[in-house]
Write a structure and sequence with these properties.
By secondary structure, the chain is mainly α. The chain is built from 13 helices and no strands. The longest helix has 28 residues.
């Protein structure tokens, strides 16, 4: 198979993954009547079940098992597990509480946060264009802070947690699917224990409300795991700059859904903030493409 065919398949996989992630807000809206911690617990449990079947069927479970046996890798995975669990919990809560725009902003600024984290922790040099992009994003956040009298905590937390997660995951010799399997296995005892606690206190929704809710919660593993599998397949076939463009599909979808479907108020302050961050991302993307093509 030649590169163009590989690239075409890669684009298809990546686009499907990011469209799925962008549409995931509808799923979390459907389960908004369930508490965010319980949704998170189901997301963990059924992800383990789905990934276990997948890895066993494809005989690809060894990397995850070996990672859990290696003390250094286990340490890194323990940290990333806590971070991604916090990221998921905040995201689920934000969607249920009509803060979709905040999640969109968080994932729009995530690439720029990655630049900053690379500078601080990996000692990567910042080019002038990157400094401009980060400055524009910071100004956008500052405008929201001044306009609303508070930091956009949800957006910043989502961007920082996901950026830090990616930074630490670089240290683990695992692909996305095996890594997620190992992380959810580490969380599994806590998720099961939490559901038992909810059951004993009479506040467990699962199996106690209606069949529709039960089926939605059971599908949490597929909702979580499928897009990651598609993303991994796409990333293997594509250049980084191409992925960089495609990744904006998800926050763009959530932004449009928040405005036109769920009628979240945008307001001039948020619009200016978004506009500055979009400008930063346009500059960043053009710079990435030009460098990829060796233009300078």
């Amino acid at each position: 198979m030649d590169y163009s065919q590989q690239s075409g398949k890669g684009v298809a996989y990546a686009v499907i993954a990011y469209v799925w992630w962008g549409a995931a807000i509808f799923y979390f809206k459907f389960v908004a009547h369930v508490s965010a911690p319980e949704v998170l617990a189901h997301r963990i449990i059924w992800s383990v079940a789905f990934l276990a079947v997948l890895l066993l069927f494809n005989k690809q479970y060894k990397p995850a098992v070996e990672a859990l046996k290696n003390k250094k890798t286990l340490l890194y995975l323990s940290i990333t597990t806590l971070i991604i669990a916090a990221n998921w919990l905040i995201f689920i809560w934000a969607i249920a509480n009509n803060r979709i725009l905040d999640t969109s902003l968080g994932y729009f600024i995530n690439p720029l946060v990655n630049i900053l984290l690379g500078y601080v922790f990996l000692k990567e040099r910042l080019r002038f264009v990157q400094i401009i992009c980060v400055a524009l994003a910071l100004i956008g956040v500052l405008i929201q802070t001044i306009g609303f009298g508070e930091l956009p905590i949800i957006s910043i937390t989502l961007a920082l947690s996901f950026g830090t997660y990616g930074l630490i995951r670089k240290k683990t010799p695992l692909d996305g699917v095996s890594g997620l399997a190992a992380e959810t296995v580490l969380l599994l005892p806590f998720a099961i224990g939490f559901l038992f606690y909810l059951s004993s206190s009479g506040s467990l929704v699962f199996l106690n409300l209606d069949i529709k809710t039960d089926l939605l919660l059971l599908s949490a593993g597929i909702v979580t795991s499928l897009p990651l599998i598609w993303f991994v397949n796409g990333a293997k076939r594509l250049k980084y700059s191409t992925i960089g463009f495609i990744m904006y599909i998800a926050p763009s979808m959530t932004f449009l859904s928040a405005i036109f479907i769920y009628n979240e108020p945008l307001g001039i302050t948020k619009l200016i903030s978004f506009a500055l961050i979009w400008l930063a991302l346009i500059i960043f993307s053009i710079d990435s493409v030009l460098r990829e093509r060796g233009k300078y």
